[in-house]
Automatic annotation (TrEMBL):
<dbReference type="InterPro" id="IPR043906">
    <property type="entry name" value="Gfo/Idh/MocA_OxRdtase_bact_C"/>
</dbReference>
<dbReference type="InterPro" id="IPR050463">
    <property type="entry name" value="Gfo/Idh/MocA_oxidrdct_glycsds"/>
</dbReference>
<protein>
    <submittedName>
        <fullName>Inositol 2-dehydrogenase</fullName>
        <ecNumber>1.1.1.18</ecNumber>
    </submittedName>
</protein>
<feature type="domain" description="Gfo/Idh/MocA-like oxidoreductase N-terminal">
    <location>
        <begin position="87"/>
        <end position="163"/>
    </location>
</feature>
<dbReference type="Pfam" id="PF19051">
    <property type="entry name" value="GFO_IDH_MocA_C2"/>
</dbReference>
<dbReference type="Pfam" id="PF01408">
    <property type="entry name" value="GFO_IDH_MocA"/>
</dbReference>
<dbReference type="InterPro" id="IPR019546">
    <property type="entry name" value="TAT_signal_bac_arc"/>
</dbReference>
<dbReference type="GO" id="GO:0050112">
    <property type="term" value="F:inositol 2-dehydrogenase (NAD+) activity"/>
</dbReference>
<dbReference type="InterPro" id="IPR036291">
    <property type="entry name" value="NAD(P)-bd_dom_sf"/>
</dbReference>
<dbReference type="InterPro" id="IPR006311">
    <property type="entry name" value="TAT_signal"/>
</dbReference>
<keyword id="KW-0560">Oxidoreductase</keyword>
<dbReference type="InterPro" id="IPR000683">
    <property type="entry name" value="Gfo/Idh/MocA-like_OxRdtase_N"/>
</dbReference>
<dbReference type="GO" id="GO:0000166">
    <property type="term" value="F:nucleotide binding"/>
</dbReference>
<feature type="domain" description="Gfo/Idh/MocA-like oxidoreductase bacterial type C-terminal">
    <location>
        <begin position="206"/>
        <end position="453"/>
    </location>
</feature>
């Protein structure tokens, strides 16, 4: 369903454009985006509500009305339905099964914040149902899934935003970093280091009773059927929380069956900015080499043989050969952030600072006027949802598009495969396949569990 079929919503979105995305959070823009009439606002739904799901929902109340929420945990669903009702006049409908959301003809777009192994199935089915899509990072569990999403975006013409918020919500530090590179302030880039943190191994996590409020089979979805595991006495989060150690929430990112550890968590942010700065958002590496790393359990043929502990890499140094003879290092050591090194200088950027002599030199030699806007491709939005809605209006892809996201995420996926197989991988960025390694190429895709295949 295109927004053009709803004149009142089209009027609202034209107001967004008139306000200008660079000032979309100003008081004047707030009046444009006010709550005078629910019919003037696009209608959203969120699928997956724990943690980041609620974060992106509450950031979007200013711009959209939420008609429905979906989650396989009844406690999480109920809590967030009430939270949403407090934020807007109408209580959203609640569903365990996301497919009931996709059946709704009144919903313009869905926001997906499920665990990673669900992203592709829901996103593809949402696009075929006529919805625009906002999906949390990392977008996919495999490289093949990224190709599929690209194909369906092109086929359906839907707008698709990936939740890599460093592109819009970082006080422009990262955009400034890219502008420094583009304007030659460190000369020829020679090396970029992405610090993305280490993680700790887990204790043995025993089989445990499934919480009454959780549909565990539905949570697993396309992933293999396994027992629920948890140490229930150690808990984190709101409302009594969830186990600190489990194979579900809170720690699903620490299992290859559902995510990719730090490589696809923080890596999806910092590798993205690095590729953007290097002008490598539509290409890829030629080689991925695991220099040193630690896997917390034993592996055979690239697969863990222990199933009661976290299985993603805990520590790592990975060398990536990027275009133009640039070396990228992805490391769990040192500061979280990105260090750019060139023939004429170096600087460091993260979410709290941008430091180094090229940054200090801006006081006497500022970047040209419009340099940040040139990087961004127009006026800079200070809110990811605002950028998404503007894209829905223009029917153009937003700043966090699926193509650039998938290209950088391929580096993260390849890094995990290289560690799992304990060898260097050579990559063909044109064919998007590993060169001369059938076993490694088998890790580019995965089988979906019967009953949870993608429906088109």
């Amino acid at each position: 369903m295109s927004l053009s079929r709803h004149p009142s919503r089209r009027h609202f979105l034209q107001g967004v454009a008139a306000a200008g995305t660079a000032t979309i959070l100003s008081s004047s823009a707030n009046r444009v985006l006010g709550n005078e009439s629910a019919n003037d606002r696009p209608v959203f739904a969120t699928i997956g509500l724990r943690n980041q799901g609620w974060t992106i929902t509450q950031k979007s109340f200013r711009f959209a009305d939420f008609a429905a929420l979906a989650d396989v945990d009844s406690n999480v669903l109920g809590t967030n339905v009430e939270r949403t009702h407090q934020k807007q006049s109408k209580k959203p409908d609640a569903y365990k099964d996301y497919r009931k959301v996709l059946d709704r003809k009144d919903i313009d777009a869905v926001m997906i914040a499920t665990p990673d192994h669900w992203h592709t199935k829901i996103a593809v089915e949402a696009m075929y149902a006529g919805k625009d899509v906002y999906c949390e990072k990392p977008l996919t569990l495999t490289i093949a899934e990224g190709k599929l999403i690209e194909q369906v975006v092109k086929e359906t013409g839907r707008v698709f935003q990936v939740g890599t918020m460093q592109r819009t919500e970082s006080d422009q530090r990262f955009l400034q970093a890219i502008a420094l590179i583009k304007h030659g302030r460190i000369g020829k880039v020679q090396k970029v280091t992405c610090g993305i943190n280490s993680m700790e191994a887990s204790p043995v996590i025993p089989v445990a009773p499934v919480p009454q409020e959780l549909d565990w089979d539905f949570w697993l979805g396309p992933a293999p059927k396994v027992d629920y595991r948890a140490l229930p006495e150690l808990r984190v989060g709101y409302g009594g929380g969830v186990p600190l150690y489990s194979n579900g929430h809170y720690s699903f990112r620490n299992w290859h069956e559902y995510s990719g550890g730090k490589l696809t968590d923080w890596g999806a942010h910092h590798v993205d900015i690095a590729c953007w700065a290097l002008g490598a958002s539509d290409t890829g590496p030629s080689r991925v080499s695991p220099l040193e790393y630690t896997l917390p359990v034993e592996y055979k043929d690239g697969n863990p043989v222990v199933h009661d502990q976290y299985n993603v890499a805990t520590h790592f140094n990975i060398s990536v050969a990027m275009p133009n003879e640039v070396e990228m290092i992805i490391t769990s050591h040192g500061d979280n952030g990105i260090l750019f090194e060139g023939s004429e200088g170096r600087f460091f950027v993260n979410r709290g600072k941008i430091v180094g002599k090229p940054v200090e030199d801006l006081k006497d030699n500022p970047l040209p006027e419009g340099a940040i806007e040139e990087v961004y491709g127009g006026k800079v939005s200070e809110n990811h949802t605002a950028n998404f809605i503007e894209a829905m209006r223009t029917r153009e892809q937003p700043i966090s598009d699926v193509w650039s996201h998938n290209r950088m995420l391929e580096i993260c996926h390849l890094s995990n495969i290289a560690m799992r197989l304990d060898r260097e991988l050579k990559w063909d960025p044109a064919k998007r396949e590993i060169i001369g390694d059938a076993q490694a190429n088998s890790f580019l895709a995965r089988e979906y569990r019967k009953g949870y295949e993608i429906n088109s």
